[in-house]
Design goal:
- The protein is mainly alpha-helical.
- It has one domain.
- It starts with a helix and ends with a helix.
Amino acid sequence: MLIASVFLIYMLFSILREHPFGVFFVLILSFFPGLVFLYLSCVRAGLVAIKASGPPNIKKLGLGTIRLFRFNIMLNNLIIMLVGVGGSVLFMNVMTPELWGDLTADFEVSDLADLNELLGRFSRMPTAIILLITLAISVSSGVIGTSSAAVAATAADKGPNHHTLWGITRQFFPLFVLSMLVLWVPTLALVMSTGGPMQPMAGLGQLSIGFFLGLPFYLVWAGCAICGGKALAYAQTVKDMEREWVKERDDMLGDIVPEDNIRALRLERQRNTKIDRDEV
């Protein structure tokens, strides 16, 4: 086992030495599970803040992270690929066909390992691509936002036992609008400040150092705002489903008289019976 581990480490080191850009992929693969766990914890914090869930359970948080990987994250990536990447390819084919032809000419898979080549091609793309990517993120937030919050709700002591698809597409419009306001609208302002959506990405490098220093703080705030919105969407969905269940029950069984009303009717009937006896 030890020999196999050493051999795998040596092979990985050899590959990364020949293709330094692969280090970024290794780092992403290493930290991505931690980011998903952090995202789940952030949504849970929102649930606890609005008293929609109890204290977390560390074991269930780990299981919740696996559940997110199993479905929600895969669906999120699919939506971003279809709406973001697919929309970007369609946009460039329609709006800038010559540029798209230049970017894809003589492109090979081996070019993915050349960081300078990738950055050079990326810098020539129009800034409208960023708008399409943030739009895709907003769509994904609306589709799986409530479902992801439901997974977070199960990661608590005596938490609900929601299935994987619970709440999918619920509260789509509010979550979509929230994500658009905190991500797409600021991105639009940024794009317009650099000359419009048809300007190349290289223009972003002319922004002030203050923008790049403040960007991480804004992204953290935006992420927390979206997670809080998902927690509220979950709480509202629970209330909506309870009302729907009560309505379905009443439709099948009719209006159920509350117990207090039944007791009052019984006492009233007893008093009436006593009065009738006294009159006799």
